[in-house]
Amino acid sequence: MFEDKNNPKEIENLGEFGLINHLTSQIKLKNPTSVKGVGDDAAVIAPSKNKQIVVTTDMLVEGIHFDLIYTPFKHLGYKAVTVNLSDVYAMNAVPTQITVSIAVSNKISIEALEELYEGMLLACEIYGVDLVGGDTTSSNSGLIISITAVGEAEKKEIVYRNGAKENDLICVSGDLGGAFMGLQLLEREKQIFNENPAIQPDFSGYDYVLERQLKPEPRQDVIEMFKELGVQPTAMIDISDGLSSEVIHICTQSGVGCTIYEDKLPIDPLTVSTAEEMNLNPSVCALNGGEDYELLFTISLEDYEKIKEQKRVAIIGHITSDKGKYEFVSNGDTVHELTAQGWNAILKKEDEN
Amino acid sequence: MFEDKNNPKEIENLGEFGLINHLTSQIKLKNPTSVKGVGDDAAVIAPSKNKQIVVTTDMLVEGIHFDLIYTPFKHLGYKAVTVNLSDVYAMNAVPTQITVSIAVSNKISIEALEELYEGMLLACEIYGVDLVGGDTTSSNSGLIISITAVGEAEKKEIVYRNGAKENDLICVSGDLGGAFMGLQLLEREKQIFNENPAIQPDFSGYDYVLERQLKPEPRQDVIEMFKELGVQPTAMIDISDGLSSEVIHICTQSGVGCTIYEDKLPIDPLTVSTAEEMNLNPSVCALNGGEDYELLFTISLEDYEKIKEQKRVAIIGHITSDKGKYEFVSNGDTVHELTAQGWNAILKKEDEN
């Protein structure tokens, strides 16, 4: 199926089945719910008793979601899996299996694909998930990765986006804006390199924001914390497109409004300094940057005592009964309207200033 | 997310969320196991009591798996779904949900995407399946469709590829080679059209083979037949890559050999006449053509009486104990070795003759 004439010993000679076998031969199923993995018409899963199944899928396209100039294949594989697991955790469920489909152009070597799968299997191992199936095909242009993740939870544990109620506290795990600053840094160095290939990028001191962009970790620990503390969030979503956008998703689906406070936004000092270095407003980056893969959730007031000492959680605002009214209170106590701008808007705005 | 500068009223203005909403707004969940569909971080499924879940995924890439020159979008959507359902039926399971991810270049209009989804939702309706989630993104080049299908069956009903035993009968549903002849016809007319756009393609009389290629139906009826007759196949696979290749998959995984008889191969008269018109051997097309999406299965001898009167099933050979020996007995009683050639080999061979 692959037709790389320049590289006959590589992908072409293995063929589609050979390639799948080659990439998946080392997989051993570990999750007790995985009955049958790669190698039949479908994978077979035995759901745990009384559990519901969650299914989520994401497609990553070269040139749109990732740039192979600065994305190592192993990191790419790791991230492709973790962004899907993040969606499973956002349902308050535990991921159990993934399937992986890839379309590969002939410019990609078998070694690169091996690294991609190494990254995917590392994420599977860390988060207790089995890779149980998929599809491998050729592409006329670029690499496309489509991953479907399956998870499970008891019916009463599952958290939707539509359960936020008036006076609920709005909480977020970890810190925000770092992944976006990592991306800006990579793009800046790429541009410098393109203009003068003799200048090697210098990333020293920026490890944290680069890692936030290239190797995000889904918040398994937060889901476990909920179980330990006996907290059931009223609504939850993971932050892939930016805090503003996700808060508005929760409010829209719950039929409520919100107030978010700028001085409560959790932002890492390195995110702040990197943003300032690039003449960007750190709060705007935190609100609209995206790709943080933190969990945004609401809890009822009565759970406040349980969660207030948790350092990994910041309470950033509360839910109001004003349906459709999304308030952002800035450090100067000015009230702004919160809008889902996305990162294009950040850069455009800064550009205009 | 979409950046079609030439077509600002179209996809770009809707944005990713708008596009997903637009395409999925009419979906009503019908399958009793579907708890939550599009609109949250993940879909939620409540598996029926005591059932196992099967999961399968396929990726279709423009220019590799389909040619938009002669593939109507509605047919493409329909086929993208049915080829996945075929994999579910090949496990002797009943499909219940699908997720759909698409990457779309800016040359594709919203109307085209609507037709694509119309075809997908038609297939969902006919086969009792819900579209419960997915992802929509932009692509720098071409259309990519990645579908994951979920199904369920009791543990004891599920049929794997590895259960074929010596003396089992090898059976196939429907007829073979038609989809391949349909493809050859479309490719021939495309070439004529490219050479002289004034000549309009004439497909009259070829309906059956064209439909086999453009709008394949998965064999739900065969799975229902098994239940009615009380037949449990010992091994099963769907024919996507060609009979030879699939027989060999069953034999390899079951650790057995096989004998297939040319005079037992079910081939439609139109497939025969179209093949002859193109100087192709109909049996070779049936063996290696692929994309028929028929079911290939083995049954134990004691089920012969139950199945022998079924017109939709042909018994084409039997399983032997000669592991790794795959025999094809031609009409002249000559014994050939069966190999998984794929359709490239057919065309090359005919070309050399």
Which fold does the CATH topology of the largest domain in chain A refer to? Phosphoribosyl-aminoimidazole Synthetase, Chain A, domain 2
* CATH top level class name of the largest domain in chain A: Alpha Beta
- Radius of gyration of chain A, taken over Cα atoms and rounded to an integer in Å: 21 Å
Oligomeric state as shown: homodimer
**Percentage of residues in helical conformation of chain A:** 25-40%
Strand order, largest beta sheet of chain A: 8-10-7-11-9-12-13
CATH architecture of the largest domain in chain A: Alpha-Beta Complex
Overall pLDDT confidence of chain A = 91
SSE order of chain A, as H and E? HEEEHEHEEEHHHEHEHHEHEEEH
Number of helices of chain A: 11
The total domain count of chain A is: 2
Structural class of chain A: alpha+beta
Largest interface: A-B, 60 and 60 residues
Q: Major sheet of chain A, described briefly?
A: 7 strands, mixed
Q: Which ranges of chain A are low-confidence, i.e. pLDDT below 50, for 5 or more consecutive residues?
A: 1-9
- Looking at the structure, what is the overall shape of chain A? globular
Tell me the total number of β-strands of chain A.
Answer: 13
Strand content bin of chain A: 15-25%
